[in-house]
Amino acid sequence: EVKLVESGGGLVQVGGSLNLSCVASGFTFEDYALGWWRQAPGQSRTVIACISDSTNGLTYYADHVKGRFTISRQNAKNTVLLHMNSLKTEDTAEYYCAADSREACTGANYWGQGTQVTVSF
């Protein structure tokens, strides 16, 4: 059974930092592309950052998080991380981890349950 379990969400002040973590199981982690998506109330789920499988580890970032967020993978721990800096109120959303055998930038086969990030003054 494939499982993706996010953690690390919470309440943070504007300008602060937060680290999200997603632990995966049930598939060969290093062979899968991974991504972080988010969904704010009343909005659709959109990609924030994604990283290819371990062949080359290419990354992509949405324009509005470029330079502030960093995605990385730790294959030995079956974990994908999202380090978020300079957080803004508009970053408030439910954040989801995604995994796919091809790419996780436009969609994914597998999703976590989400972790809430709230940024306030």
Short description:
The chain has strands spanning 3-7, 10-13, 18-25, 33-39, 46-51, 59-61, 69-74, 79-84, 93-100, 110-111, 115-120.
Strand segment count: 11
- Helix/strand class: mainly beta
Radius of gyration: 13 Å
Mean pLDDT: 97
Order of helices and strands: EEEEEEEEEEE
What low-confidence regions span 5 or more consecutive residues with pLDDT below 50? none
How much helix is in the residues?
A: under 10%
How far apart the termini lie comes to: 40 Å
The description of the largest β-sheet is:
7 strands, mixed
Number of helices: 0
Work out the strand percent: over 45%
Q: What overall geometry do the principal axes of the alpha carbons give?
A: globular
How would you sum up this structure, described in words?
The protein has strands at 3-7, 10-13, 18-25, 33-39, 46-51, 59-61, 69-74, 79-84, 93-100, 110-111, 115-120. It has 121 residues and is mostly beta strands. It starts with a strand and ends with a strand. The radius of gyration is 13 Å and the shape is globular. Strands 2, 4, 5, 6, 9, 10 and 11 form a seven-stranded mixed beta sheet that branches. It has a four-stranded antiparallel beta sheet with strand order 1-3-8-7, with no helix packed on it. A hairpin with a 4-residue loop joins β7 (69-74) and β8. It has no helices and eleven strands.
